[in-house]
Design a protein that fits this description.
Blueprint (H helix, E strand, L loop, with lengths): L1 H4 L7 E3 L7 E3 L4 H13 L7 E5 L7 E5 H11 L12 H4 L9 H5 L4 H14 L4 H17 L6 H5 L13 H20 L19 H20 L19 H4 L38 H17 L8 H13 L3 H17 L12 H25 L1 H5 L11 H14 L2 H19 L6 H13 L3 H27 L2 H21 L6 H12 L4 H14 L3 H11 L5 H22 L7 H19 L4 H15 L5 H14 L8 H17 L3 H17 L6 H15 L1 H30 L30 H17 L13 E8 L2 E8 H9 L5 E3 H8 L3 H12 L6 E4 L10 E4 L9 E3 L9 H30 L1 E3 H11 L6 H13 L3 E3 L6 E4 L2
Length: about 1000
Amino acid sequence: MFTLMCQGNLANCISNPVEPDSKLFFLFDTVHLIKSVRNNWFNEKTLGQVLCFPSPDNSSKISLAKLQDLKDIYETEKLNLIKKAPKLSQKVLYPTSFEKQNVLLALNIFHDSNSAALAQEAEEKGKDTMGTKEFIDQFLKWWNIVNVKNSEKGKRLKNPFCDPIKSSDQMSMVFLNKFYAWLVSWENKCGLPLNKRKERLPGKGGKLPNETLFALQFTTKSLIEIVENNWPVKKSKRELCENMSDVVSPKRYGLSTVSNYPYATPLINRPGSTKKLIIKNFEKPKLPENYKQQTWEKLKSAVIAIQTSKSISTSQEELYQAVENLCSNGMASFLYEGLRGLCETHIKSNVDQFLPDSMDSVYFLKLMNEFWQNHCRQMIMIRSIFLFLDRTYILQTPEISSLWDMGLDMFRIHILSHPLIQSRTVEGLLLLIGHERNGQTVDRSLLKNLLRMLLDLQIYQEVFEVQFLKTTEELYAAEGQRLMQELEVPLYLKHVDKRLNEEWERLLHYLDQSTKKPLIQCVEKQLLGEHLSPLLQKGLDQLLEEYRLNDLKLIYDLFSRVKNGLSQLCSHFNLYIKKTGRVIVSNPEKDKTMVQELLEFKDKMDVIVNQCFQKNEKFVNTLKEAFEHFVNQRPNKPAELIAKYLDVKLRAGNKEATEEELELLLDKIMVLFRYIHGKDVFEAFYKKDLAKRLLVGKSASVDAEKSMLSKLKQECGAAFTSKLEGMFKDMEISKELMAAFKQHLMHVRAPVTMDMTVSVLTMGYWPTYPPCEVQMPSDMLVCQDVFKDFYLKKHSGRKLLWQPSLGHCVLKANFPSGNKELQVSLFQGLVLLMFNKKDSYSYEEIKQTTGIEDGELKRTLQSLACGKARVLHKVPRGKDVEETDKFVFNSDFKNKLYRIKINQIQMKETQEEQSITQERVFQDRQYQIDAAIVRIMKTRKTSSHNLLITELYDQLKFPVKPSELKKRVESLIDRDYLQRDLDNTNTYHYVA
């Protein structure tokens, strides 16, 4: 409707068709405008709710309005009773969609208390809040002027901006003119051409949309013209268009007292009345003769003055009005073509300054930058004069470019499209970037301005980026080849990281973001992607061996950037673990330290995976797979040694760790246990060692023993630990049994002369011990018989088999130096008791008296005569016991301790015992293999050899060779469990 009334152009006012001597003025609703400013500020979320605008005092300076400044003040003092900015609240700063329509919440943003608080923050804390203060102050003053509702408001508030406007030179009018100029400079300085109004300014902040800026400019301009055209106001009746608002507009704008002329025209229809606005045809005023040519000459002079950096003799407002008049009278096309010609002529006249061959590259770039900056500044000024043309005729004519775009086209066509100028520009830019890459200091602002120029001219990718990426690829390809020969891997990796950071800085400071992906990929490919295998082969093992966590983290971070980088790193990591682990496991000389080294190695690899490789699932799985691979390269031995290691840690006397540390160690050992395939080997040795600990009371902690048992049960199931649990149960039952036995002795007269403790063991739970018969002293035999009678009466039908090899005792010894208590094994006790009768015995006499077999007797005598506590002398002296030796009571024996534990040699496992345990495991495996074969064949009835072997591998829980399986099949055929097919020897039948 507005454009219709204005004959196709949106104007601030038109002649009143009813009263030709008056005008109709158009304004946008200021309430909606102030809310629009607030909402646009809040909606700039991608740029951190920051708006950029020209400083009101210096239009060449760009200021930032940061909403975060107000949020910081609110968060700081929201719990305070007295606040510097009391109008700030949760609803004001974080409004919902519904609350954004509330006028009071919007006005609370533009409040003078907020302005004062921002000034105080800047003064006291040195914060950069003055930009936000300037922004709020501008709109606060503007709102105070346009929101005057009565003539007394200014006096009451003591604010001159709240006084009604009574003259054109009043302070409010001065501000409105400055405010309008500020809005125009805002669009020119921070804005973009209208056809690019949806773009944003990278690195600065957002801007008000062009629609909002235009509405503010239009309304402010209308207010100014209302005052200027109504001073003095002619007495006349005024009516505005109906149904446009439900408020009294004159009161809102404070114009009710202009020239002391009170008027108020309600905009709603009175009930029962009908009003129509009829616009009658009226003659358009004629322009003076030669107006077109004279006006154009005036505009032409102004444009040339701008282009030559001279002062303009005519005011910009007059020039703007001249443009408006020409456009309003159908001369817009003439005006556009004339301006285009002036711009083209000016640019062409400056081409020659860039052509001399002797010009230095840097000087050439500075000259180009200066000319470009001048061109932009000139086009901004020219556009501000021809703004009416830009917003009317050009906007409505899609086939022609806006004034700004026209200037860019001219610059591109006549300057940057010139082959020599273009090549010099690009070569100069590449030269400066090359200098910076070589460590020299360059003018980054010059690079930024010129690259921004290429972007604005839309030739950045075509002219610069292709050459830049090609140069970059050549540089880093050569550098990568050279440094791979010169530098160690850690230094090379740091150099690559440094280069990548440098390129990121260039992207941050002057390169366009569209270059980011191809540039970074180029650097990564040439410095990393082309050298993945050499880097890993040359340096990864060293980094892992030396435990260089920072370098390992860096190699992971860098390799994650390139294709196949992590997969190759993971593969080499796998090889290193297998190679290092194989050295630990396969060397028999390291058997004593194997488990400890494996635990330490596993800890190191865990730290590397967790801290350096970011717990990447691929690396976690690789670590598990590699450990499982090398641990089982030496069948059975790691399982045996893990059981032995546990025995040492769970045995009494181990004071190396607290309970918490021991629990943590058990968890780590369980990790190794999961890797071993021969878990039955572990179970056999663990059970044998557990039996010794339980029987001789050598467990460091019952809780630790049960904790380990619980972990094994959780890992392998109840069947795996059923016998181990039975051993603990036997020990508890034995305690109860001994308590009952002692009660029994109190009520009967039994010839028991010593304190005796018996552990009754269920044969199926405990390891199998070879039978051993010795000559016991009569007192001991009596005790055994008394207990045997007691037990068999309690459990008739059972059979007791004594195992003296597991017994131990405490002897009281009288030495000339004093009495002692000796903690010894039963075999040691039998030997020592002989010396109650005489002081010297031959080896043969001891053997005949005790009945101990040779191997055990020699170890026993060696512990008594050759150990630390030598209660006997061996004649002749020596470490080894021979059958010709004699043994004499050591009457000179001395020791500071009263209770002395003599090393129990029989507790140390012999090679023979190890072989027996391993043979027992092998026999158990044979039984399991036979049972599995029969189970499978009973189900299938007939099976091929290959299918049978495959199913056996699936069912068996221990490693087994195909040759061993074949032997078991042959054994079952010999025992008539299976039958070979007559026609096909690789097929078996089950024999029922």
